[in-house]
Design a protein that fits this description.
The protein is of the alpha+beta class. Among the domains are: 95 residues, PAS domain (Beta-Lactamase, 2-Layer Sandwich); 154 residues, Histidine kinase-like ATPase, C-terminal domain (Heat Shock Protein 90). It contains 11 helices and 12 strands. A 5-stranded antiparallel sheet has the order 2-1-5-4-3. Strand 11 and strand 12 form a beta hairpin. Helix 5 crosses helix 11. It is elongated.
Length: 357
């Protein structure tokens, strides 16, 4: 009578027990029998359909590149990259008791682990920048808020006093100059008030706003700087509203900082025809602002230190402007980067999520 025997579950041979204990995804291949002789538990979790007893031709089909490696003679361990998408990092050992040991590592998981590590590091740096901004903002708000208020009051008083002269009215140029000076002082006061609020909440005040309108309202604040440097301003703004959800004061501060940096670059090494260009582009789900100049540009050293706090390329610069700008844009789930122009100068890019109209 023939007895039907239940085959026991696969157990690790003594030579393979170490791999099973270490948690490595390992398979023992038997080239003579053209099959997989044994697999570790980690292998079974990674490739559950390619366990012990699988024909090598089936394994080679799942792991392109394995057949060529098995066909090589030699006593040295081979390090391989297998798979159509190179998703497997493999190690094929020299023959042992007629078998070859194949150890696999999922390169995709390594990539995901690396990305998680990079994300964690970026979050740590972002948190550090936010804390630095908060500390600086508290100091700045305390030190300059009162002088700004005093300047605004003096300018208003001067305007009122001049308007009461015997002529009875201000000259147009005088009125415009005083109005712009008062606007600048009040803009600075709004920045200080908003930064003080930010240090407590650490969040921007989010409202729907038209980025087109914000840019058009921001440009006149730098009219005097543009005229003094003889810089031509080019605006390329799309038709209609370009809506984002964000903090108007923070975003306006970023735009002014980028424009002032461009004007500084134009003054450092003036071209024959200084030009500052603002271009707003619509992408799928994103608005991109480009602030371009044909100034002195950035060398490799300046590029490497561009967003490092307190590292400035300007003789009198504090080196915190771009760091603060990047923190503000990141608080809006956006991004800030730069590129070198083909001929001369630099372009800074601000990407912000577009809001539904």
């Amino acid at each position: 009578m023939n007895a039907v025997l239940d085959l026991p579950e696969q157990t690790a041979a003594p030579a393979h027990a170490g791999f099973a204990a270490l948690g490595d995804a390992v398979a023992a291949l038997d080239p003579a029998a053209h099959r997989v002789a044994w697999t570790s538990p980690a292998w079974q979790r990674l490739l559950p359909t390619l366990g012990a007893g699988t024909a090598l031709v089936q394994l080679e089909h799942a792991l392109p590149g394995l057949a060529a490696a098995l066909g090589k003679d030699g006593d040295q361990t081979q390090c391989l990259i297998l798979g159509d998408a190179h998703e497997w990092q493999a190690e094929l050992s020299a023959p042992s008791e007629g078998q070859r040991l194949l150890r696999l590592a999922d390169r995709r998981e390594q990539g995901r682990a690396l990305q998680r590590q990079l994300d964690a590091r970026e979050q740590l740096l972002f948190t550090s920048r936010v804390l630095s901004v908060g500390e600086m903002a508290t100091t700045l708000a305390h030190e300059i808020n009162q002088p700004i208020g005093a300047c605004a009051n003096l300018l208003r008083g001067l305007r009122s006093r001049l308007s009461r002269r015997s002529s009875g009215r201000l000259q147009e140029a005088e009125a415009q100059a005083l109005d712009r000076a008062i606007d600048q002082a009040m803009f600075a006061a709004r920045i200080i008030a908003r930064i003080r609020e930010f240090t407590h909440s650490h969040q921007p005040r989010r409202v729907k706003l038209d980025f087109n309108r914000l840019l058009r309202a921001t440009v006149p604040l730098l009219d005097w700087d543009l005229q003094r440097s003889g810089t031509r301003l080019e605006l390329a703004l799309p038709e209609g509203e370009a809506t984002v959800c964000g903090d108007e004061v923070m975003l306006q501060q970023v735009v002014i900082n980028l424009m002032r940096n461009a004007l500084d670059a134009l003054r450092t090494d003036p071209p024959p025809q200084p030009c500052l260009a603002l271009c707003l582009l619509r992408h799928h789900g994103e608005l991109e602002l480009q602030v371009s100049d044909n100034g002195c540009g950035l060398d490799d050293e300046a590029q490497a230190r561009l967003f490092v706090p307190f590292a400035s390329t300007k003789p009198s610069g504090m080196g915190i402007g771009l760091s603060i700008c990047r923190s503000f844009i990141e608080l809006h789930q956006g991004r800030l980067w730069f590129s070198r122009n083909p001929e001369r100068g630099t372009t800074f890019h601000v990407g912000l999520p577009a809001s539904q109209q």
